[in-house]
Amino acid sequence: MYEPDIQINEELMDMLTLDEKKAWVESSPTKVFDFDPKTEKVVVVDPEAYTYDDEVIKKAEAMGKPGLVDIIAKEDSFIFTVESTGAVKASQLLLNAIKVLNQKLDPVRLSEDTVEADDQFGELGAHMRGG
């Protein structure tokens, strides 16, 4: 899952009553947000818990406040979970998975190198790869 970039529109949020802020926070099934009673502000407490279910966006729209929050998936950063049964440490599982992923990416790297060679050397690049 891509890492979410969550931005609360403070200007719109300040227009909500305390009860509306609390109701909006509660609309998130995974508790991404919290209401700070001291500052009376809504804060992002666990962005990684966001599941792209759009519940908070729908709630904001239902409250007449579209744009209350902007959530964008960072396509260059992702979140994944590694769980172990105990037979192998999670850290070792991760290292093994990275090794397998590297092996599977080798053909892709070779393919990209071939394309670069074609671009750089033209017809000679095709002959270099046996084409």
Automatic annotation (TrEMBL):
Q: Which domain of life is it from?
A: Eukaryota
Q: For this UniProt entry, what's an example GO CC term?
A: RNA polymerase II, core complex
Q: Does the keyword Transcription regulation apply?
A: no
Q: GO molecular-function annotation terms?
A: DNA-directed RNA polymerase activity; protein dimerization activity
Q: Name one Pfam family in it.
A: RNA_pol_L
SUPFAM superfamilies xrefs: RBP11-like subunits of RNA polymerase
Any one Gene Ontology BP term: transcription by RNA polymerase II
Q: Which InterPro entries match?
A: DNA-dir_RNA_pol_RpoA/D/Rpb3, RBP11-like, Rpo3/RPB3_RNA_Pol_subunit
Keywords for this protein: DNA-directed RNA polymerase, Transcription
Outline the extent of the DNA-directed RNA polymerase RpoA/D/Rpb3-type domain.
68-105
Q: Which PANTHER family match?
A: DNA-DIRECTED RNA POLYMERASE, DNA-DIRECTED RNA POLYMERASE II SUBUNIT RPB3
Q: What is this protein called?
A: DNA-directed RNA polymerase RpoA/D/Rpb3-type domain-containing protein
Q: Which organism is it from?
A: Prunus dulcis
